[in-house]
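Q: We require from you a single protein entry containing the residue sequence and its fold in token form, and nothing else.
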Amino acid sequence: QVQLVESGGGLVQAGGSLRLSCAASGRTFSSYAMGWFRQAPGKEREFVAAIDWSGGSTYYADSVKGRFTISRDNAKNTVYLQMNSLTPEDTAVYYCAADRLRRRLGATPQVLADFGSWGQGTQVTVSS
């Protein structure tokens, strides 16, 4: 099992940027893909971005492609989500998640059920 702690959320104006961090402990971080999801009030949790265990492959939801960047530092057991050009539609609680399986190089899971460990979430609010 892995423990995940997100940080970096907050209130930002439309067009602004935020960088979320997720610190992992309790398992070999570098062996597992990681992902970010978000959940807005009254909506289901949705996929945002994923990165394979090496950091060399990434995948994004269409809604954030070109604006968000996922990255990881395996030496620091941390995954990041750089969010630029934020809009009010990006307002949500953002969750970091760890893959439940060790996958091949380049694999970037996107289905919620693929992830076995979750952080507590960090609120991102974008004002218009």
Summary: The chain is about 0% helix and 50% strand. The first strand starts at residue 3 and ends at 7. The two ends are 39 Å apart (CA to CA).
